């Protein structure tokens, strides 16, 4: 008799759903930050300050996205 395969799908608990919501919110904030960084870099005043702020904003967006991934990872129980 063949053994049933274990299910790889995780049950949707409240914490798993919360982790997904936080991940999507932080992903949206990161996307907005990247768009603002691109707009600032392209439409900036031409000085070095615009590029500096664009780079800082892009790094901050990456950090926010990483925090969202970490929260999803911790709350999903992996």
Structural notes for this entry:
The structure is a single chain. The protein has 78 residues and is mainly alpha-helical. The protein contains two helices and no strands. The protein has one domain. Helices cover 76% and strands 0% of the residues. Helix 1 packs antiparallel against helix 2. The model has no long low-confidence stretch (mean pLDDT 85).
Shape: elongated
Structural class: mainly alpha
First and last CA, distance = 31 Å
Profile the largest sheet.
none
The amount of beta strand, in percent, is: under 5%
What radius of gyration results from the CA coordinates? Answer: 19 Å
Q: What share of residues is helical? A: over 70%
The residue ranges in which pLDDT falls below 50 over 5 or more consecutive positions are: none
Number of distinct beta strands = 0
User: What's the domain count?
Assistant: 1
Count of discrete alpha- or pi-helical segments spanning 4 or more residues: 2
Elements, N to C (H/E) = HH
The average pLDDT is 85
């Amino acid at each position: 008799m063949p053994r049933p395969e274990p299910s790889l799908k995780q049950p949707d608990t409240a914490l798993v759903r919360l982790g997904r919501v936080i991940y999507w919110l932080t992903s949206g904030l990161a996307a907005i930050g990247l768009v603002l960084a691109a707009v600032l870099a392209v439409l900036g005043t031409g000085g070095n300050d615009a590029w500096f702020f664009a780079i800082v904003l892009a790094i901050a967006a990456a950090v926010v996205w990483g925090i969202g991934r970490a929260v999803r990872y911790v709350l999903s129980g992996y």
